[in-house]
Amino acid sequence: MSDVVIEVKKLYKSFGGHQALKGIDLELNRGEVFGLLGINGAGKTTLIRILLGLLRPTSGNVSVFGLDPTRRAVDIRKRASLLPQECQVYELLTAYENIVYYGKMQSELPDKVIESRAVDLIRLIGLEGRENELTKGFSGGMKRKVLVARAMVADPELIFLDEPTTGIDVLGARTVRTLIKKLSKEHGKTVVLTTHDLTEINELCDRVGILVDGELVALGTPADLEEKFRSAHIEDVFVALVEGAV
Ligand SMILES: Nc1ncnc2c1ncn2[C@@H]1O[C@H](COP(=O)(O)OP(=O)(O)OP(=O)(O)O)[C@@H](O)[C@H]1O
Ligand SMILES: [Mg+2]
C-alpha cells in the first residue's frame, strides 16, 4: 500500500474573479500530523473542502487514497472524517447520542463497536458524567469537544480538523492535542489540522505548510522552517512570511 495519502498538484481554485488557491503542490504521508497555517482568508478551509470533494477545483490534480475527490467523494468519506470549522452539534441529542448517531451514519462498523468507541472518547475528551445531558445546555467549548469526538468515532484513517481547539479552554485544548498525538503515533492515523495556535503547531505537527494568499509559501518541519528562516520560533517565521519580509 502506498504511503502517500494525499497528493495535490498545481491546484487552483477561484470563486468568481477571486483566486483562493494559486497552484498548490503538496504530498502527505500516512501517519503524519500536518498543520496548515495561514491568516484569515488564506485558503485553508478551501483546500480541506476540495480534498473531501465538497468543492470542485478550478484546475489541477488532487488525489486522496489514490482517488479523485470530484468523482469518488463517497468512497473517500468512508475512510476520512472532518471536523468542520463551522459546525453545530444536534442540540436535542445528548453528547453520547451525538457521537454514536454520527458514527453509525458514517461507518460500516458494528453498532456495538461504535458505542464502545463513543464511551472511550467521552472519557478521553473529559466529558464523562455529562454524556447523557442534552448538548443544548453545553458551553461552546464542550460542544466543540463533542464534535472532536464525533470526528474520531468511526475510526477514520484520515482526519481533517479545521481549528479543533478554537473556543476550547486550556485544559480541554491540551486534552484534544494529546488525543491527536495518540491517534497518529499509536494508531497510525493521518491528521490534517488548521490552527491559529502556533504552540499547537510546534507541539503536534510533523510538518507544517504556511499559506499566504492562496500560495503555499513554506513547507517543512517546524524545526526546518525555523532554521531556514533563521528564527527561534515558528511564530516569527509565520509573521515574516505573512508580512512578505522574506
Ligand atoms: N464559498 C465561497 N464563495 C466565495 N468565496 C469563498 C468561498 N469560500 C471561500 N471563499 C474565499 O476564499 C478565500 C479563502 O477562504 P478560506 O475559508 O479557505 O480561508 P481560511 O484560510 O480557512 O480562513 P479562516 O482562518 O478565516 O478560516 C477567502 O477570500 C474567501 O472569501
Ligand atoms: Mg477556515
Bound molecules: adenosine-5'-triphosphate, magnesium ion
CATH class: Alpha Beta
What percentage of residues falls in helices of 4 or more residues? Answer: 40-55%
Q: Strand share of the residues?
A: 15-25%
Taken in chain order, the helices and strands follow as EEEHEHEHHHEHEHEEHH
Unreliable stretches covering 5 or more consecutive residues: none
- Count of the separate structural domains: 1
Quick one: overall form? globular
- Report on the biggest sheet: 6 strands, mixed
Short key terms for the protein model shown above:
binds adenosine-5'-triphosphate, 6-stranded mixed beta sheet, globular, 3-stranded antiparallel beta sheet
Please explain how this structure is put together.
- By secondary structure, this protein is α/β, with parallel strands linked by helices.
- The chain has a single domain (4-242), classed as 3-Layer(aba) Sandwich (Rossmann fold).
- Helices cover 40% and strands 25% of the residues.
- It contains 9 helices and 9 strands.
- The chain has helices at 44-51, 69-79, 95-106, 111-124, 140-152, 170-187, 198-204, 222-228, 234-242, and strands spanning 4-15, 18-29, 33-37, 59-64, 80-83, 158-162, 190-194, 207-212, 215-220.
- The protein has a 6-stranded mixed sheet, with helices on both faces.
- Helix 3 crosses helix 4 (111-124) and helix 3 runs parallel beside helix 5.
- The longest helix is centred in the last third of the chain and has 18 residues, at 170-187.
- The protein is globular, with a radius of gyration of 18 Å.
- The termini are far apart.
- The mean pLDDT is 93.
- Magnesium ion is lined by residues 44-45, 85, 162.
- Magnesium ion (MG) binds next to helix 1.
